[in-house]
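Batch job 17 of 40 flagged for manual review because the log was empty.
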Amino acid sequence: MSVEACEPQRPGVRGWAVWALPRRVLVTVLLVEVVAAVLVIGDLARRPPPPPEELAAAGALVLLGVTYTELSVGVERMRRRLVDANHVDLNSVWTFASVVVLAGPHAAVVAVIMLTHLWWRAWRPSVPLYRHLFSVATVVLACLVTGAFLEQVGPPEHRLWVLLVAMGLYAAINTGLIAAVVRVSTPRAAPSALFGPWDENVLEIGMLCMGALTAIALALNPWLVLFVLTPLFAVLRAVLVRPLEVAASTDGKTGLLNAAAWLAEAERVLVRPGAAERCGGVLVLDLDHFKSVNDTHGHMVGDRVLAAVADALRRVVRAHDLVGRLGGEEFVVMPRRVAYGARSVELESVELEVVAERIRARIAHLRLPLPSADGARTVEGLSVSIGGAVLPANGGDLASLLQTADTALYAAKRAGRNTVRIEVAPVRR
């Protein structure tokens, strides 16, 4: 049971999850939502009712969007569980098509209907209502801005540049507002946290292109739009491939490679002697007295400690080094170094020991605050014993490297823990 689950729930409006957001984030989110609501209501109020043909097009788009959602409910739920897909909305194929076909505020209404249905059917278990409302507000603003541009320049038929600019505006407003809130929440957030990973952005561009094709199909022959559903569903299924691969290779508690994935990748590094980077040795780490952490604070705190240690490892090693969790409180690191010139076992031993000492020092300085009913507590005084193995001069295999590192680890434990021991693996026969 989580700490939050132990706290009394406040009834009514005061108990809504949105009020738990930091003040600056809350103000930004509410400002975006209020601006979107005021603009769309004001724009609708000053326009005449839509003509029958526009109502028919809006109804067709809503029907297509709802049908698409019903076909893809299971896939969308799994996608939300596997990946933090905050930046990409796969329904943008229909919302962008609405902007091209309908007036801006009418497209916004269509988007609200489709996204609310999508949230109710697929996202509700994993996406809080306040996050959904913010996502809807960003799409509404994207519809209004893009729609205003299209009204100024006229229909995009036979003008590719108009569609390209419209796609850019739509994506910039939608993604930019999400990035702004992430920046307010986490001032030092990395670009991937602000704008999402590159493959998600490519997917978003693909959905916008499909939206443009859908709008063109509606203009030529509305029945042609039915041919969009099958490839869209195929794309949605394909989108799951990468998250499923990541989930299969990732340790659930730490986000590091799991034992099987680390071993497979380490074997690939060792058998590529001509690659630009080569194995710089292996480090096996074991948290000292970890059982006492579980016994004193409970297993949930123990899991938080493992996650904190994993984060410390990421901060010490380089992005291309292999880091994994072997199981329990045991971690493994394979630093990779540039394959330049002849190997020097002595130099690599020193380099491996430097990395190991940095890891040991980082973990020794970890302080993990824990909220509790009795006041704040802090888990500190952690330490780690590290055993390292360096490849011998004529190379070696992964099994001997790990065995040597494991032997060095037990030597570090016998030496009093919180220490590092590095050995050279035996020469391969």
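Reviewer: the log was empty due to a logging misconfiguration, but the result itself is present. Residues 3-248 form one domain. Unflagging and moving on to job 18.
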